[in-house]
Amino acid sequence: MLGRLARAPAAAAAARRSFCAGAAIQPFHIAVPVHNLALAKDFYGGVLGCSEGRSSVHWQDYNLYGHQLVCHYVSDDYRCVDYINPVDNMEVPVPHSGIVLTEPQFLELADRIKRSGTKFIIEPQKRFVGAPGEQWTMFFKDPSGNNLEFKAMAHPDNLFVKYNVPEG
Fold first, then answer.
1. What is the dihedral of CA 13, 30, 139, 160, to 10 degrees?
2. Range(s) for CATH 3.10.180.10 in the chain?
3. Has residue 9 got a pLDDT over 80?
4. Residues 6 or more apart from 67 whose CB is under 8 A from it?
5. How far are the Cα atoms of 55, 79, 86, 89 from residue 167, in angstroms, in the given order?
6. Domain 82-162 in CATH 3.40.1350.10
7. Is the pLDDT of residue 24 over 80?
8. With contact defined as beta carbons under 8 Å apart, do 94 and 87 qualify?
9. Phi, psi at 131, each rounded to 5°
10. What is the pLDDT of residues 34-48, one digit of tens each?
């Protein structure tokens, strides 16, 4: 039986790609540590406009553009540790997470973030202009220092296109 399930390396790799590149996009779940649930609620519910779902005294669920974001209280002392990766002549904070939006959603969110007084790590801007990966992008932190990136692809079909990005 095991012999019948074994595949040649190329076939196995193709099967993995096929599995990861499913046609229907399902909501993802991400959990982030926070140092204060009230501040998390103000930020994710108020500034970002996410609706709150289930919650307890230790965690809160949010609907982040159709995806499940869970803020878990971990410690009053928690702050995300930053590492930097140079990308397109910018210092991109790592780790980070976020959502790929449409351009109108991106511009509306960028305006909302600006009005809230949240400090940008990388101001809303276009990068990789003229390249297959051309995109609007912005980076900022939540109150616990978790890095967030929101982006909008100039050509949404190019989100997963393979190309080599020149170092600048």
1. 20
2. 27-74, 82-162
3. no
4. 27, 28, 29, 30, 99
5. 44, 31, 9, 8
6. no
7. no
8. no
9. -95, 165
10. 999 999 999 999 999
Long-range (24+ apart) CB contacts under 8 A made by 44-50 are 44/69, 44/71, 44/142, 46/116, 47/112, 47/113, 47/116, 47/118, 48/109, 48/112, 49/112
Question: Which CATH architecture is the domain 27-74 placed in?
Answer: Roll (3.10)
> Running DSSP on this structure, what letter comes out for residue 158?
G
In three-state secondary structure terms, 98 is strand
Of 97, 69, 93, nearest to 81 by C-alpha is 93
What pLDDT, in 10s, does the model give residues 43-70?
999 999 999 999 999 999 999 999 999 9
Per the document, the length of the chain is 168
**96-101: strand order across its sheet:** 96-101, 147-153, 135-141, 120-127
Q: Round to whole Å and give the CA distance between 135 and 133.
A: 6
